[in-house]
Amino acid sequence: LELRPAAAGRTPLMISREERMARNEVASREFNEEIEEAYEGEPPSNRLDIVCECALKMCDRTIDITMAEYRMVRTDPRQFAIVPEHLIGDIERIISGNDRFAVVRKREGTPAEVAMEENPRG
Asked: Which of 32, 65, 69, 114 shows a CA-CA span of 20 to 30 A to 12?
């Protein structure tokens, strides 16, 4: 358990299920950002394998995605690319998808706040 400074009246030990799940997604996104950086300068149609950005702690699934698709997902820090069956409806909703992955957006409140606060793109 990582202790973070208290935010909005919470003590560091009062991490909710929603916040814990959002932090799992953020960790996957950070890993995928490193993968994307390794392919910087490649054509947008190039495909890469990224890790599923779902909230499930033990997920080991990968997603086949183009550079252009991944950049589209990253246009909003509340968005993540997941394996469709990993949707957790109480913290996110599917906004688009195809036969390889779904793009989800965090619901307002803690999930969206964590996603935006931990956005590596700034």
From this structure: 32
Contacts of 100 (CB under 8 A, 6+ apart): 63, 64, 65
pLDDT, tens digit, 9 for 90 and up, residues 7-48: 555 445 556 777 778 777 878 888 898 888 898 888 989 999
Residue with tokens 């799992």: 24
Beta strands in the chain (DSSP E): 47-51, 62-66, 79-82, 92-97, 102-106
pTM value is 0.75
Q: Which of 99, 30, 84, 42 is nearest to 67 (CA)?
A: 42
